[in-house]
Amino acid sequence: MDHGRVLQALVGVVAGYLIALAVWLAWLAPHAEPGTKPYQVMIMVGLFGASCGIAMAWASMPTRADRRLRKHGLEGWARIDGVHQLSRTDHSSELIEFDVELTVPGAESYHGTIVVDVMPVHKPKMVVGETVPIRVDPQDRDRIILDL
Questions:
Q1: How far apart are CA 9 and CA 15, in angstroms?
Q2: Helices (H), 2-127
Q3: Rounded to the nearest 10 degrees, how much is the dihedral formed by the CA atoms of 118, 121, 124, 127?
């Protein structure tokens, strides 16, 4: 999870909500029918919660650059030579550094490291000696994404 993107999305939602709340308090609430304010408050709270959920879902999607790399990147494979667990994350996955030998058809193989947030379902595939599919940016061979 990219906490920076989530924070940006939530700051945007809070800023928009504060503007909507100011408009509601200054303009709409004074002109509301008697007895409808509790319902209006429930609607405002519901809109805030829904907006936060949508913003967090949007923030957790892959970036445009990652989607472009997954679609247009050169196909290749990486043989895992070493696995180093860095830390556990806050969503039941592990941040792992892999020492790999990268192979892209039409180019020489090269060695590198990839740091990946590995979900438990993918962990059995991510052991020393295994080969995993990758996508490599044709403009920058250091920009690599696992294609699981």
A1: 10
A2: 3-23, 37-59, 64-72
A3: -10
- pLDDT per residue as tens digits for the range 16-55: 999 999 999 999 989 889 999 999 999 999 999 999 999 9
pTM: 0.64
Contacts of 123 (CB under 8 A, 6+ apart): 94
Region of 40 (left: φ > 0; alpha: ψ -120 to 50; beta: rest) is alpha
Rounded Cα distance, 101 and 76, in Å? 11
CB atoms within 10 A of CB 53: 11
Q: Note whether 128 and 83 are within 8 A (CB).
A: yes
Tokens of 47: 């809109």
Q: Which residue has the tokens 């999870």?
A: 1
Which tokens is 8 given? 């940006």
